[in-house]
Specification:
Growth Hormone, Chain: A, 3 domains, two-stranded antiparallel sheet
């Protein structure tokens, strides 16, 4: 039974009628994001055990991760658009249900095929969590509280990232790798209860023939574009060709992208309303958000490899540093959200990107002892956390209520695609740099590329309206 609420029928939006209702709503939104982040962080710890259990080659191991990440990215805009017509709360519950079903498949998987099916279902279910959470916060929280709410909601991810490796390690060592998915099922049941109880009904007046006239062809072309682009960036496991060199995959990417562009221009109700990008803050914040996640995806790939290759750090130390790094992001995420509710949202972003730029530039240019390098990376994490909620708040601020699901889906797709592309691009850059220079020099070159992405983010952020 959902909590009572007062409805704004003219906007098609239901709003909790008390501060307690808002707190319950926020808890209901935080638990699903904690659920998905916990699953990802536990999975990373269990991956070596899965590899050994099934006797997999490295390129096949990568597909256990890809089976989750591809549908996760591809289905985000679909959830957002369907949420505007079918109701965000309903789609939210469907997403949690699919995640639970996928976790059950993974828990009981007797062979690799069932594990891959489970991971695909998990990815499809998870795809709706981020965009629908953002849209629901924008729909239900007063404007002056949205930044704080987004900051509090966003802080769950780093917190779960700190807890996940500990739970995952315990499960793998004492129970078996598949038991990480039992924990995911329990978390999903808790999330379903809180969402069903606290998320208000956000049903809209669905146009006649909504599903029949839905832009399914646009879904197909956009999915093809994203899939082929990711394959092009990491083609070795698929076609045996070096990354960024398989022109067949590039041609397929461009063909799907062009077909999608033409489809969206001629269809009556497009999957992607390109007019959203004429909203200055939304278009600019989406671009900056994608670049921020390029930086985050790159650092997620680089930081442990750098410490292991250059300083010889062992696994225990790497695990501890990864936990502390997540804590650095957590430390400033909520603060950034609180500051975003005032007149300082753009200043917060500029400060965050400036801090990250300084840290990354130092890593790219100065030979450092291990403790100093770790300090610079932690400083970068502090800046990354500070920027997160401000970007969410600015991106969604001027979007009309009837388009918030679609906008949140597009914004989330851009962000998480940036993370995937960042890791793939710096991986290729590091490999090429190591062929012509020392290991330390190669890492410095790649940190320089990440710093350049941060510099572009800083420059573009100046264009955001206050």
């Amino acid at each position: 039974m959902k909590s009572s609420q007062a409805s704004d029928t003219s906007a098609g939006v239901a709003t909790p009628n008390s501060d307690w209702g808002l707190r319950g709503l926020l808890i209901g939104l935080m638990i699903p994001i904690g659920m998905t982040t916990l699953n990802m962080s536990m999975f990373s710890v269990a991956l070596p055990a899965m590899r050994d259990h099934f006797g997999l080659a490295p390129d096949v191991v990568a597909w256990i991760t890809t089976a989750y990440s591809l549908p996760f990215v591809v289905f985000m805009p679909l959830y957002g658009k369907l949420g505007d017509g079918l109701g965000k709360d309903r789609l939210f519950l469907w997403g949690i249900g699919l995640f639970s079903l996928g976790s059950l498949f993974c828990l009981l998987a007797g062979d690799l095929s069932w594990l891959l099916v489970g991971r695909i279902l998990q990815g499809i279910g998870t795809a709706g969590i981020n965009p629908l959470c953002l849209a629901i916060i924008a729909d239900t929280f007063p404007a002056e509280q949205q930044g704080k709410a987004m900051g509090t909601w966003s802080s769950v991810g780093p917190g779960a990232s700190m807890l996940g490796p500990l739970l995952g390690g315990f499960a793998v060592d004492y129970l078996g790798w598949n038991y990480i998915f039992l924990m995911s099922i329990i978390a999903a049941m808790i999330a379903f209860y809180f969402v069903n109880r606290h998320i208000p009904s956000l049903q809209t007046d669905r146009p006649p023939g909504f599903l029949r006239e839905f832009d399914w062809l646009g879904v197909l072309f956009l999915g093809g574009f994203l899939v082929f682009l990711i394959f092009y960036l990491s083609s070795r496991a698929l076609t045996g060709v070096e990354p960024l060199r398989d022109w067949r995959l590039l041609a397929a990417t461009l063909a799907c992208g062009l077909a999608f562009w033409q489809q969206e221009k001629r269809t009556r109700v497009p999957l992607v309303n390109l007019q959203l990008y004429t909203i200055k803050n939304f278009g600019t914040a989406s671009f900056v958000g994608g670049l921020r996640m390029v930086v985050m995806g790159s650092m997620g790939f680089l930081k442990v490899l750098y410490l292991a290759d250059v300083y010889g750090m062992e696994a225990t130390g790497l695990g501890l540093f990864t936990t502390v790094y997540a804590g650095a992001i957590l430390a400033t995420t909520r603060l950034g959200g609180q500051l975003a509710d005032g007149p300082y949202a753009r200043r917060v972003l500029l400060t965050a990107f400036t801090l990250q730029l300084i840290m990354l530039a130092a890593l790219a240019t100065i030979a450092l002892p291990a403790w100093a390098a770790m300090g610079l990376m932690l400083g970068q994490g502090i800046g990354a956390g500070l920027a997160l909620a401000s970007l969410h708040r600015i991106a969604m601020r001027d979007v009309p209520s009837e388009e918030r699901g679609s906008a949140a889906g597009l914004y989330s797709t851009t962000r998480f695609a940036g993370s995937t592309f960042g890791a793939a691009i710096v991986g290729v850059a590091l490999q090429q740099a190591e062929l012509i220079m020392s290991m330390v020099g190669a890492y410095q070159v790649v940190f320089g590329l990440v710093a350049a992405a941060c510099l572009v983010s800083l420059i573009v952020s100046w264009q955001l309206e206050k």
